[in-house]
Amino acid sequence: MSSSSSVAPVLQVEREPGRPPLVHVEPPGDVRGWAAEHREALRARVDEHGAVLVRGLGLREADQAGAVLAALAGELMTEREAFAPRKSHGPGLYSSTEWPSNQPMCMHHELSYALDVPGLMLFACLTAPGEGGATGIADAERVLEALPAALTERFEREGWLLTRSYNDEIGASLEESFGTGNPVAVERYCRSHAIDFAWQSDGSLRTRQRRSAVVRHPLTGRRCWFNQIAFLNEWTLAPEVREYLVDVYGEDGLPFNTRFGDGSPLGEDIVETLNATYEEHTLREPWQAGDLMLVDNVRTAHSREPFTGERQVVVAMAEPRRLADGCPSPEVDGR
Predict the structure, then answer these.
(1) Do domains 22-99+116-137+285-322 and 142-276 have the same CATH topology?
(2) Would you say 140 and 299 are in contact if contact means Cβ atoms under 8 Å apart?
(3) Can you give the pLDDT at residue 331?
(4) What is the pLDDT of residue 8?
(5) How far apart are CA 64 and CA 31, in angstroms?
(6) Which residues pair with 314 in a beta bridge?
(7) Given the DSSP bridges, would you call strands 307-308 and 105-108 parallel, antiparallel or unpaired?
(8) Where do the structural domains in the chain lie, given as residue ranges?
(9) Pairing of strands 51-55, 160-166
(10) How does pLDDT run across 312-327, given as a tens digit for each residue?
């Protein structure tokens, strides 16, 4: 169908149990032109299903993928407050988070601890892994409904707390996270984004930020379980990794950890419940080279499963939103 046609492009979505919504397309000659022509149709499928995987585009190069993602989303976001390093492939286009390939990245909503969160996530697979490595997705409304009511009610009252300790050995550096290593600029950012901070005697930085665990979707108004409570918690780490980090940095010096909003620690049983509930609602499909996935970041959580072989997936974030109920701190709610 040509771009001059008066008939809007139609994209047929396949739905199968346990798999994300899938659209098969014939390889287009001009993939960026195809993306521009089908932008509204694809976005409508994301609004309908929360995510959509497009197969057949034949994406192979980062520049090509970046042009396609920009055509679908417009201006791409610059990441701030990253918890782990990424490689940049150009403005707003990044590698997947540098995370050990044998360790899972559990379900989460990207930058759900920031004030300005991406409304849309875009993934393009340039090289598929040998085994594993799927980007799973889970419906945040259904996860919220499935979790124990007493637990979600507490998180809804208190929010959740993210603590971070920046050092030069593990996790994102100050410059990678804040875009600058200048202490004055870092402090200015923290103050304007409702982040408590304290410089340590060795020059390192520790921060605390309280955010909402349940938010209403900005378009539908439906309640979503929206956070990174399980993923960034110490009990999600592999036991040997947690033991090493606690031994080196201490309980209060972990690169990142999560707590109840009142500062109380989370028990291992709670984190296991969160991750088990996510698993029950996970949809997954092995990546194929050239695949594209669009994800509504508020409605849909995503993960990255362990993998073998080379895996190259580039990522972009778009449509920044400052959620009205995203931060339970009074000084932010009143803005």
Answers:
(1) yes
(2) yes
(3) 40
(4) 59
(5) 8
(6) 95, 124
(7) unpaired
(8) 22-99+116-137+285-322, 142-276
(9) unpaired
(10) 999 999 999 998 888 7
Look at the pTM and tell me if it is higher than 0.70: yes
Beta-carbon-side half-sphere exposure of residue 53 (alpha carbons within 13 Å): 23
What pLDDT was estimated at residue 238?
Answer: 86
Whole-angstrom distance, CA of residue 111 vs CA of residue 163: 14
Question: Which amino acid makes up residue 308?
Answer: T
Indicate the length of the chain as a whole number. 335
Q: Which residues of the chain have pLDDT under 50?
A: 1-5, 330-335
> What's the CATH fold of domain 22-99+116-137+285-322?
Double-stranded beta-helix (3.60.130)
Q: Which residues pair with 283 in a beta bridge?
A: 137
Domain 142-276 falls under CATH 3.60.130.10: yes
